[in-house]
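#struct-help
A.M.: can someone run this one for me? Single chain, 101 residues.
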Amino acid sequence: MHLALIKYSVLRLALFVGSLILLYAVGVRPSILMLVLAAGISLALSYLLLGKQRDAVARGISERISARIDHRQGLGQADADAEDADVAAAERKLQRETDTQ
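D.P.: on it. Structure tokens below:
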């Protein structure tokens, strides 16, 4: 996942820089407006051109989240099993105490 994210980020940055260069070449003065226009252009281009890379990043994020959820559920189950064993032991102890009285 990390490689896909890095590749996607570098491509997005390249589109932004390319948009800045293009705007400068057509005569847009360096300003906040130029940055906003370049961001809008690069956003549109990345949406149109980088779909495969965006899907790879999304798939990697989804797999990582699923692995974390599975891991946490496993930890929760181990905790529940330990708690069940403690409760059963306490119930057996209480039963022995009531039987001896």
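A.M.: thanks! The mean pLDDT is 87.
D.P.: also worth noting: The two ends are 64 Å apart (CA to CA).
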